[in-house]
Amino acid sequence: MKPKNMIIEIGSYQLCKHDNSVCGDTFLSCKIKNENRFIAVLSDGLGSGIKANVLSSMTSSMAIGFRLHNTPVIELAKSIMDTLPIDSERNISYSTFSIIDVDFDGETSIVEYGNPSFFIWRNGKSVQQEKEKIEVMQNNKKSYVLLSKCNLQENDRLIVVTDGITQSGIGNAITPFGWGSEGLTEFIERQIDQSSTVSASDLSRAIVMKAQQNDAFRMKDDASCAVIYRRVPRHLLLCSGPPYSESRDKYLGETVSGYKGKIILCGGTTAKIVSRELHREVICLPIEKMRGDLPPVASMEGVDLISEGILTLGKVLEILENMKVPDITEHDPAASIVRYLLNADIIDVIVGTRINEAHQDPNLPVELEIRRSVMKRIISCLETKFLKETNVQFI
């Protein structure tokens, strides 16, 4: 039997220490397309605020840079630790780190220094991993890093946190010694029991928000969580605009009809063509259901969402480009499309190239770009900022 194609989904979430505006933790990830692998780094700067952020950012950036050049992980760790100063009072490094290198076949190496131990969640429970303790000299002082090698199987999740998570709740009646690894493990088990397909972003956010609750919603330290989830990819088809030639309308309808995944149609003309070709009715919501300044969505059998075209796509692009964290509080059609896009792994895009006369209206805002340009920017943002795989056709 041919092995299933797998993807690596990475999600993270973090909160600052109470009354701080800058987080002292840094999480960076990088996809190396030609090698089919990801590098991810979670670093915790000593203390909190700007100084801690600078230290953790430097550590994460160095780790990504070294691994991009395939520097052996132990040599990488030694180089970082030689660069980092030692706190003279507490005799500890100014930054801790967890470095994860994982390829699409699941082969994974993890280097840990100072952070809480990572979890691998498999078949409803945490799986223990063997760790090699390696001595490293840091500024003429003996230190140790932990090296682990494993293979992530289908639906495995690798979870890394900073100590703001495990130490949350210290001093409380329920968790006088902090939440700890045991409390975190029990929480992860409940979250995955409730939703076995919970995304990496949603799980990391839930863990951090629970840590905030442990601290009575006044974080005592920066808290970060990153989740790496290996699974079968989720597909999405995004269609916008009528084909250049009416002879291609049938192709558009057949593509929508045979697609295995979520389907979004942007544009009234696009929806009418698919409706005609597939003999399926478009059901429009009343204008009273309009959210914000965008027309309401419509529905059709076999299609997950139908929206207006260029105005909605322009708002989608704006949300994607300005998004700092994976929280979308809006409920208009553009926000709904963004949620679908972020939940997908492989996004197939069909862009019709027939000129829509409605877009030549001089009363439309000058900054509205034509459909093709907007779609190209959306695709670029999905690939570079959100590490999505995209395939585009202009018809």
Count of extended strands: 18
Kindly report the CATH topology of the largest domain. Phosphatase 2c, domain 1
Structural Rg: 24 Å
**What is the rounded distance between the termini?**
36 Å
Roughly what percent helix? Answer: 25-40%
Order of helices and strands: EEEHHEEEEEEEHHHEEHEHEEEHHEHE
What's the number of helices?
A: 10
CATH architecture of the largest domain: 4-Layer Sandwich
The average pLDDT score comes to 85
If strands are numbered along the chain, what order do they take across the biggest sheet? 14-15-16-13-12-17-18
Structural write-up:
The protein is an alpha+beta fold and 395 residues long. It folds into two domains: 7-231, 4-Layer Sandwich (Phosphatase 2c, domain 1), CATH 3.60.40; 235-394, no CATH class. 31% of the residues lie in helices and 29% in strands. It is built from ten helices and 18 strands. It has helices at residues 49-68, 73-83, 163-166, 180-194, 200-214, 249-258, 268-278, 310-322, 333-343, 371-384; strands at residues 7-15, 25-32, 37-45, 95-103, 107-113, 119-122, 125-126, 132-138, 141-151, 157-161, 223-231, 235-240, 262-266, 283-284, 298-300, 303-307, 346-351, 389-394. The strands form three sheets. The protein has a seven-stranded mixed beta sheet with strand order 14-15-16-13-12-17-18, sandwiched between helices. β6 (119-122) and β7 (125-126) form a beta hairpin. The longest helix has 20 residues, at 49-68. It is elongated, with a radius of gyration of 24 Å. The relative contact order is 0.12.
